[in-house]
Amino acid sequence: MKTPLSSSLIKVEAMRLGFDACGIARVARVDDTTAAAFDRWIGKGYHAGMDYMARHGDARYHPDYVLSGCRTIVSLAMNYYPGRRIEEDRLQFAYYAYGKDYHEVMKDRIRQLAKAIGIKPENSEYSEFRVVVDSAPLLERYWALQAGLGWIGRNHNLIIPHRGSYMFLGELLLTDEVDQYDAPVANHCGTCRKCIEACPTCALTDGGVDAQRCLSYLTIEHRGPFSPEQAALIRQQLTPYYIYGCDRCQRACPHNSFARPNQTEEFQPSESLLDMQTEDWNQLTREKYTELFRGSPVKRAKYEGLMRNIKTVME
Ligand code: SF4
Ligand code: SF4
């Protein structure tokens, strides 16, 4: 029988590589309550145009579908709370989009972690691990909860005790076992409803985020022009207007008073982004857009999408 990997070595190496939290979950099928809730969320159409969410059916409830023989999920978090922020009287971007695209940064570090704990190279004949950063049908917040990283708040974000929710999540899936697994963290939302009260479009429901009403979905994921109803939702926010993403339900959360500026070079905003004024956004050219957002997650909305958002809030 194979010797289990050392959980303390994994955590020490994760901290050395700059992760802010690391927990380890034993793999089993996602519990029935969570699976039923996810099915209901899809059934209600709350995933809006994110068709990929509805694919894979029941398979997404077992990590074996993502990595055959998967026994362990190492859940990892990296802080993105920015030390320098866009001034409050200017058009806003969600904090996660201030720097370079986190997918490659996280993936690279998770691969380094796999190497540091002695796992064989990915995609080799003896592939024993898989790195996931939004790149496979895995319920990442559920697994972060099972791995003891934090709890899922009423804003449906993962909240890490004494750290908050401005965290990127990623996973290292292993066919190995470890010598010690973590247990879920209790939910500390209590009677608080600040995030629900802060949402300008009432997108937070007990059954999950209704993406059809969520400014993050509308300004990032939605393709094509806005319908009059969608445009009205975008304008329903009070100033400062977000033109890419939305952090209101995170900003309202008292647990984010624990957030501390991230120290990751790739996540720092450029001077040119911080300097942009409303009139600059109105006159944004394709060339300036390319220069401002090289390697940035904002590329997801494309120039046309960002201009659509700007025009909508300015009307
Ligand atoms: S991201 Fe914004 S719009 Fe979406 S649920 Fe949170 S507060 Fe509401
Ligand atoms: S604002 Fe309150 S209810 Fe919402 S996630 Fe934070 S603690 Fe939970």
Kindly list the characteristics that best describe this protein.
315 residues, alpha+beta, 10 strands, 31% helix, binds iron/sulfur cluster
Concise description?
The chain is α+β, with helices and mostly antiparallel strands.
Task: Summarize the structure in words.
This protein is an alpha+beta fold. It has one domain (1-315). The chain has 12 helices and 10 strands. The chain has helices at 7-16, 32-43, 102-116, 140-146, 194-198, 215-221, 228-234, 248-251, 271-275, 278-282, 286-292, 302-314; strands spanning 21-26, 72-79, 92-93, 129-132, 151-152, 158-159, 167-174, 204-205, 208-209, 242-244. The strands form 4 sheets. It has a 4-stranded antiparallel β-sheet, sandwiched between helices. A two-stranded parallel sheet has the order 3-10. The protein is globular, with a radius of gyration of 20 Å. The termini are far apart. The model has no long low-confidence stretch (mean pLDDT 95). One iron/sulfur cluster binds next to helix 6 and helix 8.
Average pLDDT works out at: 95
Order of helices and strands: HEHEEHEHEEEHEEHHEHHHHH
Structure ligands:
iron/sulfur cluster
Structural class: alpha+beta
Number of domains: 1
Radius of gyration: 20 Å
Gross geometry: globular
The N- and C-terminal alpha carbons lie at a distance of 66 Å
Per DSSP, the total helix count is 12
Total count of strands: 10
Question: Percent of residues in beta strands?
Answer: 5-15%
Main sheet characteristics:
4 strands, antiparallel
- Helical proportion, percent range: 25-40%
Low-confidence stretches: none
Q: Largest beta sheet: what is the strand line-up? A: 1-2-7-4
